[in-house]
Design brief:
11 helices; 309 residues; single chain; Rossmann fold; alpha/beta
């Protein structure tokens, strides 16, 4: 007779009840049982799969870890898509529009604030919706002018860690999380840009518009720089450095107009809307550089130039 071993059944798994699993696996199966299966013939409906969600093991009113999926790229792409849809849906009924840019840091007692306010008023009276970044400073001033004139005053606001707060002079306010979505709305719904003195954000809008026109990603539209004294240094560098080095052509400056007159800025935008800038072109920085006129391929000296065709 075999000798009795007292350890059998005490520390060693019995294959009959572990179903061939190791002791550790069997223990996990008991401590962490699989979720119960639906009864035979019963499976979750699509609505149940959508509405059911994970829950904390114990009652907790806040569980940030449950939202971790919202910080993944696939979810971020959906959020971006939703922001495009929301922006286009909000602005779809905008007809003729002009985007006005400028610093958020100029206060109400600045002469530039008064000029931007007058610009908003003149544009509204001419039939344009005024579109700004929706913030304070010169954006507020342009919105205020349009608002007080009874026009459409649009603010495309953006989340920023500082400086940006929505102004109260808008008839339509759209909030954005992503800069590139917001910038798309400016370009899509504006028939011209008016650029007041500003910082890096203002320069960003200026050079993006110039680049999109230069590369023919958008149809040509007027870009008006207000305050010749403020923009002189930049324009001197563009002409004296970039143009001389051959990095740009004179034709790239065709629809860049510099003015110190609000009325002239308004007239430029009206003319370009009605006649595609044939009169306004003569006032452009390109015309001052003896550039080929826009839209004249038959007479263009160099058909490779961006605005010559």
């Amino acid at each position: 007779m075999d000798r009795f071993d007292p350890n059998i059944g005490r520390n060693q798994p019995n294959p009959s009840y572990t179903n061939g699993l190791s002791a550790e696996a069997a223990r996990k199966r008991v401590l962490q049982p699989p979720p119960p299966r639906d009864p035979p013939g019963r499976r979750q409906t699509e609505d149940e799969e959508l509405l059911n969600r994970p829950l904390p093991a114990i009652p907790l009113a806040r569980a940030p870890e449950l939202a971790s999926f919202t910080h993944t790229d696939p979810w971020r792409v959906l959020r971006i898509q939703g922001e495009f849809v929301s922006g286009i849906n909000s602005l779809a009924e905008i007809g003729a529009g002009v985007a006005v840019f400028g610093s958020a840091r100029f206060s109400e007692d600045s002469p530039l604030y008064a000029a931007a306010r007058e610009m908003g008023k003149k544009l509204a009276e001419a039939g344009f919706a005024v579109i700004t970044g929706g913030g304070p400073g010169l954006m507020e001033a342009a919105n205020r002018g349009a608002y007080e004139a009874g026009g459409i005053s649009v603010g495309c606001n953006i989340e920023l860690p500082f400086e940006q707060s929505e102004n109260r002079y808008t008839t339509l306010s759209v909030n954005f999380r992503y800069f590139f979505v917001r910038k798309t709305m400016f370009v899509k719904y504006a028939n011209g840009f008016v650029i007041f003195p500003g910082g890096f954000g203002t320069l960003d809008e200026l050079f993006e518009a110039l680049t999109l026109v230069q590369t023919r990603k958008i149809s040509r539209f007027p870009i008006v720089l207000y305050s010749s004294a403020y923009w002189k240094g930049l324009l001197d560098w563009i002409k004296g450095t970039q143009l001389v080095a051959g990095a740009i052509s004179a034709e790239d400056m065709n629809l860049l107009i510099v003015t110190d007159s609000i009325d002239e800025a308004r007239d430029v935008l009206v003319d370009c809307y009605n006649t595609r800038c044939w009169t306004t072109w003569k006032k452009s920085e390109g015309a001052k550089l003896d550039a080929d006129p826009p839209g004249g391929p038959a007479t263009a000296i160099d058909p490779t130039k961006s605005d010559a065709q």
